Every structure is written in structure tokens, then in C-alpha cells.
Amino acid sequence: MTQSISGNKIRSDFISFFEEKSHTFVPSSSLVPGGDQTLLFTNAGMVQFKDVFLGTDRRPYSRATNSQKCMRVSGKHNDLDDVGRDNTHHTFFEMLGNWSFGDYYKKEAIAWAWELLTEVWGIDKNQLWATCFKDEKGEIPADEEAFESWKSQPGMRTDHILFFGRKDNFWEMADTGPCGPCSEIHIDRGEEFCDKKNIEGHVCQVNGDCARFLELWNLVFIQYNRTSPKDLSPLPATHVDTGMGFERIVSVLQDVDSNYKTDLLLPLMDVVMMLCGQNEEERENNLTPYRVIADHCRAASFLIADGVVPGNIGRNYICRMIIRRASRFGAKLGLDDPFLAKVAESVIDIYGDAYPELVKNAKTITDSLTREEKKFHSTVEGGLAILESYIENLKASGNTQLNGEKAFDLYATHGLPLEITKDVLRERSLLVDQEGFFEAMEAHRVNSGAGKEFGELGGEDAEFYANIAAGLIEHGDLFPEGVIQDPYGANEVETEIVSIIKDKQEVKILKEGESGEFILKETNFYIESGGQVSDVGQVSSKNYENLFLISDIRKPSSGVVVHVGEVEQGEFHTGSKVKISFDSDRRQDIRRNHTATHLLQYQLREVLGDHVRQAGSLVAPDRLRFDFTHPEAMTREQIKMIEDRVNEKILENSPVSISQKKLDEALAEGATALFGEKYGEDVRTISIGAGNPYSYELCGGTHVSETGEIGVFLITSESSAAAGIRRIEAVTGRKAYSLIKKRFNTIDAISDLLETSANSVEEIVKNILHQKTILEDELRSLREKEAIARYQTEKQNAEVVDDIVLLPLFFEGIPISILRQLADIFRNDFEKGLAIFGSLVEEGKVQFVVTASDSVVKMGVHAGEIAKAIAKEIGGSGGGRPNLAQAGGNDYDKLLKVKLSEYVKKLG
Ligand SMILES: [Zn+2]
Ligand SMILES: [Zn+2]
Q: 465 and which of 556, 766, 801, 837 could share a cystine (Cβ 3.0–4.6 Å)?
């Protein structure tokens, strides 16, 4: 075993080994699963091939190999609590795999696994063990085929081939669907690796519980389809799906006892060690913070590279939470300033060759990390101090569990993620009520009007439509590849209705007034994707006597396109020849907005910088919306500049060209691709500009042929869409024209009112506003004079009780500043006096001051207490010093009835 083999070499060894066996290398899909709404993160190599096994997707290859980026943060496979506390758990990890889609099977998969491990990597054959499936219930046949294959491998010891039951050696994707036996390869690392030696009765064994035996590789042989808990039927084609945990094989080949000691993670811990100035011994004694930081910083770097920025919900929350957790563990090592960018540089260094997205987004990664650390630092101390007081209360009351609502409040108002609260509590042997936390979060989400993180689970009717399609293909009603889709051609296409579906049943006829779905042999409709909305339109008989209005279109399963709508006129039969056409005016509006979106993205990068990346997009007929990564609000100048520059490009009337390319070629040429989007081998590219195009994107949408068709482009708003993400909304073409028209009309109406021309409106409005200010000032000083005059009159007639002058005086429309002024005058005028000055400031809003002269205060009168008592009476609040207090309320009539004498009488 060579000590010096690097992690990167091990990964490339794996891939080239299978490439030599005619496998196609398929790059890792994004951590954000494309098109799979049910999954938070890609969590297995299987994710991007799931549809192939389900038969709803086809690929141009039947053998594939890959190294998939995976992320697991919760659930049965990984509890975040374990990450950092042991040598093997990670949030982010890589999974190596080789795949056969109806191609080779057990014999080859086993022989190649053996060859790679023992010949290429030189692992001692005596250390290797294999397991095969034998059903403990005796219902499913034992996997003798795998057993025989293992036996025939050169140097394989028969006593190292073991049988295990369903839990260990039978794989199922779900309760129903493809499944089959699996065969695992384990390595015996030698007695010294056992970490359970001191436990009485412990036996080191395959599938045991100590670190001596490690499962290296799982080969899954998919050969059955489960239709019910009892029933398995053989699949027409068999598949192979294998998975080898990358970090684990690297730890074995580099002969270390921890994933964190491999050259994948150790350099990250070295950076941390250097930053906090500890030595190796100190690190060894305090490994948890090091491991947490290395793991979380690596995961966050990959997430940000895939477009996931720190935020409040879903994936964005996970990104935020792991950064904050790493930051807090950094603080435990004395790292009080942002430091994760330094660690991330090392991540990019180690992984950049295999995952170029890290290099491409290096600045975004380091900037986002630092920004999030700063944000956390600015709130964390408050949060931790409050948590500290909760802990004291818990200890004092003998409780061991923190209330979930309190934990949620720590997150919502102090930015302390649940996971960090848990860490802190755990360090004091305390717990948190997690269920209560999520209940509080749910309540908050409902109250704040925020929606569900993810949409409805899709795909439950995929099988229904896949079956219909299979039948239609078998009868020759559909082409073998399913419904032919061409949204780029003519507006009207002649075709045939091959199936009508009503209330989830196939029917022969759909009559006037009835709603249903049509499957047509061909369609020219665009189906919502890449942000562009679906077309609407109609199906008609040849002479237009029968009419079906299409309100929606969807693709429930590969090869099936369903037109949803209602029969407006006449009736339709299966087998009828029909014409389908989309609403072409609406389509043209959409085209304008889509090409404008590309122009906008180009100018955003030009003006704001290369860190701008698409984070969401909507291309509708009436507007476009574009979300992109950018740390701060755009300035007015930037918005104007971008709007101007897009319009310049429109006036240039640049040609828009569309061409089909190989994905590799397009990316090599610098085409902009979307993160989280699943691209096939062949891609469609849109470039704008003659000769050397300035905008070049992978895009399946529909576009104008020259930018001049867009007409005009207006930005209607710029706002925040999420933390670190800005949103621009804009209009083009007809909508922009009508917006301009509307504004013109408004200006015309205003100039009519002002009896001036549109050109002079601004000047005149400025003058009016100026005059308004002057008038308001005059009015204020008049009221002030009037108030003081009234005071001078009223004070003559003031009631006197026990030598104390009592003066209640109320006004309408006098500001509080004047009331305070009167209070000062009053205290000056009377040595012994108590007064209240109130005003109805505006409808339903009352303000008042209470004031008492010093000698009255000495007698025990307290203006603050009096103001408080009166405020309570009139539905408000307030208070103040003994000689001067201020308060408010909403009941003016009640205020008028206040009797100051009551407050003096109480003196006794
Ligand atoms: Zn052991
Ligand atoms: Zn596009």
C-alpha cells in the first residue's frame, strides 16, 4: 500500500479504471437536485440516475461512472450532532460509483471491483471480505450468482464470503419499485483498529460495530420490481448501481484511522491550527472544533459554488447554519474574527481540479463566508447571553430540557440556529425540545405568511401516464420516443389526438363543456421550464367547428405531454385529426421578455461584476423577474445604467442565434450555465451579437430573432429576494409601451390640473411644495401665538384649591412642542401650580403634558404619576419626572373631563 497516493489520484484512478471498461464519465450533478422537489440535497450517486431506473428517462449510454457530490444533514443517515465528534461522519461527502443500465451484471461488477481494489490499488486480498444476500425469511432466492462470482476471483478466500439477510444485503428504493440484492466488500484493517477492545464480549466481525471492519463498497444488483409488500416480479432488464464512500477509501489507502487525517481534510485543520496558533498536541486534545470547522467549511464552500447562499429557509438555512456552527467552534479556539475564507481557500485548492465550479466561484465563496460570519458575530453575543440565563434557570429549577419556543426565539431574534443551541446545551449535559422548536417555527411561518419551503410532492401520477404512453407506443400511436415536442417551429401544427383523459381515466370522447386532458402525437407548445411559463392556446378540428381551449400543459412522465383544458365547442374523439396552435401574441411577448432577460443578465455582470449569478427567473408574457446573487441593494445610478445599456443593445438590433452543441463544447466556449439545472449531452445555446457574441447562454427558451423586436425595456423594481439575493422586475414591448402611455397620461392630467404644459410641471410642483412649507410654518406660528394668547386669558380664571393654581387647557391641532413650551411658562408664572395642556394632534391621537411647580412637587404631587393615570383613562401610556411629564392616548373627549382638583385633594 502506497502511503503517498493522493485523494485526487484515487478519484481519478477510479474514474479512468471504469472509463477503460467503456463507461461514460458523467460529471457530478449539483448538490441542488435538478427537477426533484422532494429532496433537499443530492444525497447519493443514485439521485441523477433515479429516473433511468424508473424507466422515465433515457440516456445515450448504458455504462456510466461518476464521483457525486453529496450532502446529508439530517435523517437516518446522519445526525448533525455526530459530525465533528467522530472520525467518520460528514455533512458533505463524495460517492464514487459505476452504473450499468440494462448492460453488464453481477459477474462483471464483482470482477472489476476486485481488480480495482487488489490490482490497481494493491489492497492485500487476505484483508478483504465479501457479503451476499440470503433471505432470512426464505421468500426471495439467495444470491448464489454473486457468491459464485466472488468464489472465482483470483485469491479470494471462500471463508471470507458471508451471507447476510434483508437489513444488510437487500436494497429497495421505496416501498414499491425497483429493488434487488446487494453485495458488499469489507476490509479488515487489523486488530489495532478495534475501538471496542475494552468492552466485554465484543467480537470483531463483518457488519459488527467496531472500526476494525469497514464496509468499502456496496454493489447493488437491481433485478426485481416490488409491486406490494409480498410481491416481487423480475425486471425485463437488470441494472448495477454501486457506491463507494470516497473519504473512506482514501483513509484506507492512505493508511490513516480517520477521514480527517486524509489529505482531503487534514490541510484544512492545518490552516485552523496555524490561525489559532496551537500545536499538533493541543489539536489532538481538542479535535472536535477542528473537525467541525473542516467539515462545515468544505460543505459550505461546495454549497455556495452550487448557488446556495446563507438564508432563512430550506437549503439556504442549512448553508447559514453550518457556517455559524463552524464560526462558533472557531470562537472556542479563540478565532474571534472571520476566518473561514482562509479555510475555504484551502478547500478550493484541494478540490478545484475535480470541481472547477469552486475555482470559478472562489470570490463568491470567500465573500459569502466572511459576510455571514460578520452577520453572526454582530448578533451572537446577545443570543448566547440569553441562552446562558436560560441555562441558569434550568439548573436552578432542576430541569434538563430547554423549551422549544425559547430556542426558536433565540434563532428568530438573535440568529442562533437550533443546532448551535443544541451544541451549547449538550456541553452542559442539557437538551432542547426540538419538536417544540419546529412547532414554534411553523406557527411563525404561518403568521408571517411565508409559504412552504418546497412545493407539493410531484410525480405520484407519473406511473399512470407512463403506462398510458407505453401502451400507445406499443400500438404505434406514439413514436418510440413518445410525444414529439417542437416548441420552436410553426404556430399551427396538424396532428392527432391519441388519448383523452377525464378524471384520471382514459375515455374515447370529450363533449362540449367538459374538462379533460389530451395527449397528442405532436405538440408545438412550450412547457414551463427555465423560468419561461407554458404556452396557452387551442386544439381545433380541421374546419375549426370543434374547439378545445388549452389552459395548461405538463409533462407528468418522460415522453408524455398532457394538454389540459375544456371543450368550448363541439366534441373530440380519440384518433381525430386536429390542429394545435398556441396563442402567438402571448408567445411573442414571452420571447421579448426572455431575450431581454439574457440582455439584463449580461449587463448586470458588466456593471456589477462577475459574481452576479442567476438565482431564479420568471419569464411571463407581462413581465420578467430576475433574481441574482449580489450582496447589497443596487444604487439608483446602477439601475439606470443597466436599463440604459439594455436599451442600447435593443437599438443596436443585434442578431440572436440559436444552435445545438455538445455540453462540453458549449461550456468550453464559455457559455453561461445554470446551477442546479440538469443538462443532457446535447444542449441548445443562445448567443446575442453579430460576429463575436456578447451574451452566450445555455437555454431551451424561445427568443426573438433580433433584439430590436423587444422594443423597449423598463426596470419597474429592484428589491431583496433573500439574503444576498437581489430581484429585478422589468417589462418590455407592449407592456412597456402601455406603461409609458400610462405615465404620459398621468403627467398630462397633472399639467391640466395645474393649467400648464407637461414641460413645466416639475417646476410648478416644486414651487407649490415650497409655498406649502412656508404656509405650514406660518400656520404653526399663528397657532403658537393663539395658544399662548389663550393661556394668558385662561390663567386669569384658573381655579385655586388650597392655594394651588389648577389649570387644564386643551387645544386642537397644536403640536406637543408648544404644549411643553406652555408648561415652562406656567411653572414660571405660578409658584404653586398644577396644569395639564392637551391637544388633539390628529384624528384619534391625543397628546398632553402635565406640569407641577417645585413647591407643589415638594407637597407630594408627581406629574409623572398623574400623566400615567390620565393616560390609562384615555387609552394610552406615558409618564415622566415629578415636575414635567408627557403622555398620549386616543380619547379626546375623556381628556376634556379631567379634574386636576382630584389629584390635589388626595394630598389630604
Ligand atoms: Zn473490534
Ligand atoms: Zn434563457
A: 556
